[in-house]
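New to this. Please check this record:
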Amino acid sequence: MLTDLTLAEARAGLRAGRFSSRELTLAFLGAIEALNPRLNAFITVTAERALAQADAADAALARGEHAALTGIPLAIKDLYCTAGVRTTAGSRILAPFVPSYESTVSANLLRDGAVFLGKANMDEFAMGSSNMTSAYGAVTNPWTRRGDNRALVPGGSSGGSAAAVAARLALGATATDTGGSIRQPASFCGIAGIKPTYGRCSRWGVVAFASSLDHPGPLARTVEDCAILLGSMAGFDPKDSTSADIAVPDFAAACARGVKGLRIGVPREYRSDGMAPEIEALWRQGLDWLRAEGAEIVDVSLPHTRYGLATYYIVAPAEASSNLARYDGVRFGARTEGHDLIELYENTRAEGFGSEVKRRVMIGTYVLSAGYYDAYYLRAQKVRALILKDFTDVFQQVDALLTPTAPTAAFAQGERMDDPITMYLNDVFTVPANLSGVPGLSVPAGLDAQGLPLGLQVLGRHFDEETVFAVGAAIERAAGFPALPSIRAGA
C-alpha cells in the first residue's frame, strides 16, 4: 500500500513516476477518513486544498521539476499558523482564528512542494505530555498493550502529529518541542522525532508557549525521513530574532556516516530510581550496538541535570504567563462578553482556557510577581546557565550522548491524570536539552513486555545535528525496529 511507504521511498516513487502525488494524497485522505474518528489525530482536514497541491506537484514532476518534498503529504501541528486555514493551538480561545499569514517553517515546506493534509491535534497551547488537554478531545495512540484494548495516550504535546505518522495517516508531520513534546510522543508511538538546536528552525508564525524553550521540528517514521524534513524546515529567518544565520547542511547524507571513532557519553544522572528495568536494559543494548559499530562509550556527568525539571517548571510557566496575556478577547480569537472590560477579560479567559493552561499561567504569574521573582525565576535562570555549562563541558569530551527518551512506555488514558507532578515527570529526560538548546533525537529501539515501543535519545552539540542523525541512524539499523501499531492504514 502507498501508505506503508517511508517518506524517502515515496519521494523516490514520485520521481520515478510509479504513482502520482494525487494517488498518494488520496490514499492518505482515505486513511484519515477511516481512522481519524478513532484516533482524533486531526482537528482540521484540508482535503480539497491537499488535492490541489498534489495536482500542482504532479504538474511540476511532469515538467521534470522537483524540490525536496514535491508531492509529499504531511500533517501540520495546529500550532503552526497556516494562511487561510484555521489554527487553534488546541484551545477554545483560538477556535475562530484563521491566520492571514503562513509560518516560516510551513512556508518552507510549501516552497519545497509539500502537500498539507490538515492540522494535527495537540495539547492546548502545547502544555501537556499526554494530548489529553486539547479542547478538541484526546488523541488515541494507535498502539495497544497485548491483551488490553484500553486506549493509550500518544504523548504530548505533539500527540496528534505522532499518532498520524504512526498510524500511516501522513508521511511525516511538523511538531514542536518545549520540554520533550517531539521526542516523548515519538517514543510512545514508535517513530522518530528530532528537536533541533534552538535557532535552527524559525519560530515565526508558531503560536508561542515558552519563547526561549520552543523548538519547531519534524516527526517521521525513520531517522532519514526526519533528516529530509528538517532540511526543508530549517534556515535563517530575519523575522525571528532568535533564528541562527547558519547554513543548513545535508542532514540526510549524515545518516549514512556511521559512528566509527565517535565518543558516546553516558550521563550517570539519567539513571533514574523509578526507571523500568526494561528501559535500563534497552539503554545498555543501545550502547552495545554503538560499541559494536566502532564507537567508544564514555561515562560522563551532567551534575545539574537533577534540577532540570524544577527549573523548567519555573521558566516555562513564567514565559507562558507573558505570552498568553495577548489572549484577551479584544484583538483576535474567541470573546465572552462582560459588563465592562475587566469582566470581558475574565470571562473570555475563564471560558477559553482549559485547566492545565490556567494552572501554568497562575504558576508563571506567581513566580514573576514582585515578591517572588528573585526567589524563583531569577534563581531558575541561574540554574539554567549551570545546566548549559554542563552540556558545554561534556561535549568537549564526547561527540554525542545516549539516554532513554522517556521513563515509561505509553500509559492509558486516565492513568496518572490526577496528579500534575506525576505528569510533569514524563519530561525528566527531555527537558535538559530544551534548557540548554542542544539537539535531541528519539529513535524507536525496542518494545516493553506489553508490546509497546520504547525510544532511545541521542543528544549532540549545538548545531551538530549531523552527528545526532549519524548516531540515531546507526541505532535504527541495529535495532531493526519491525513492530507496527495495531491501528493503522491497511491493518
